[in-house]
Amino acid sequence: MQEVHKIFGVTEQTFTQEALRIFRWQHAQNPVYRAYCEAIDISPAKVDTLEKIPYLPIRFFKTHQVKTTEFEPAIIFESSGTTGITPSRHYVKDLSLYEESFSRCFELFYGPVQRYTIFGLLPSYLERTGSSLVYMADRLMKASEQGHSRFYLHNIEEMTGWLQMQEQILDLPGHKGEKNLLLGVTYALLDLVEKMPMRLRHTIVMDTGGMKGRRREMIREEVHEQLCAGLGVEAIHSEYGMTELLSQAYSRGGGVYRCPPWMKVRVRDEEDPFCVRPSGSGILNVIDLANVYSCAFIATDDAGRLQADGSFEVLGRIDGSDMRGCSLLTA
Fold first, then answer.
1. SS (H, E, C) the chain
2. pLDDT tens digits for 64-101?
3. pTM metric for this prediction
């Protein structure tokens, strides 16, 4: 496909046209997606609006190579999953698409990454290979150009020391919008507030989800209440991403996520998966135009609530679906 990076310039007015263009191309060039469309009797001739585009069930990333065109992948992102459960695999042809997607998205919601010192508390992800979250965090840390931007595997004391030092520096006059970003998996953030509670004034705390069997499952409100109390912040930010996507949505608090312009969420009826709506409660479908070389139209296993303005909440997992390593908190 020519000029694939132009997807990042889409607007509300041009999104549908670009999505339809990618649908037709993926139907022609992606054998798995085409076979699925044929199985449900959907041909390109029948698809002339955004609402008619079919969504590939996310489980196909576990059982098939979901690739648009034939290529040797630059990298294969793999979900952590639970022992005994087949992981999802995302075969990525062009890493520059992923890098541009997460870089543009971060700047859209949080401003230039150079303003941030990024503290990564992602132990379970660092203990394996193929994590798209680790890849993103590592590139953002390098782009931040701050010496203390790095991962802290189990050395919480060291991280806390540098974080508190940065807080003191940012208390001094003369700083222009610099901040810290503490990016952590849920159970590691809860461990942090139990062992070393603190009061953060210049730090965004971002929860990436995931208990990994280390703690009892908790509702999001309970987790975020504990984190706010233990870290002295008013809100906990969150990132909605997954192995099968090359884009992310962000929440600045309250569990309400917003997408970048090249990503949209729809909801489908739990009883009728082909009944897709632009708002309401149901199971989340995601359009991610950055998935040019895999599949841009994915039916997830996440239950949620979608508002008319495109913002959404995640309410948990549907019954019978595999729990991800980066499992989302139930609401």
1. CCCHHHHHHCCCCCHHHHHHHHHHHHHHHCHHHHHHHHHCCCCHHHCCCHHHCCCEECCHHHHCCCCCCCCCCCEEEECCCCCCCCCCEEEECCHHHHHHHHHHHHHHHHCCHHHEEEEEECHHHHCCCCCHHHHHHHHHHHHHCCCCCEECCCCHHHHHHHHHHHHHHHHCCCCCCCEEEEEECHHHHHHHHHHCCCCCCCEEEEECCCCCCCCCCCCHHHHHHHHHHHHCCCCCEEEECCCCCCCCEEECCCCCEECCCCEEEEEECCCCCCCEECCEEEEEEEEECCCCCCCCEEEEEEEEEECCCCCEEEEEECCCCCCCCCCCCCC
2. 999 999 999 999 999 876 556 889 999 999 999 999 99
3. 0.91
Above 50 in pLDDT, residue 330? Answer: no
Is residue 49 scored above 50 in pLDDT? yes
Q: Are 142 and 98 in contact (CB under 8 A)?
A: no
- How does residue 331 score in pLDDT terms, banded at 50, 70 and 90? very low
Residue 172: C-alpha distances to residues 83, 151, 232, 291 (Å): 48, 26, 19, 43
Residues 6 or more apart from 33 whose CB is under 8 A from it? 26, 27, 56, 66, 68, 295, 297
CA 276/CA 298 separation, integer angstroms: 12
Query: What's the token pair of residue 43?
Result: 């041909």
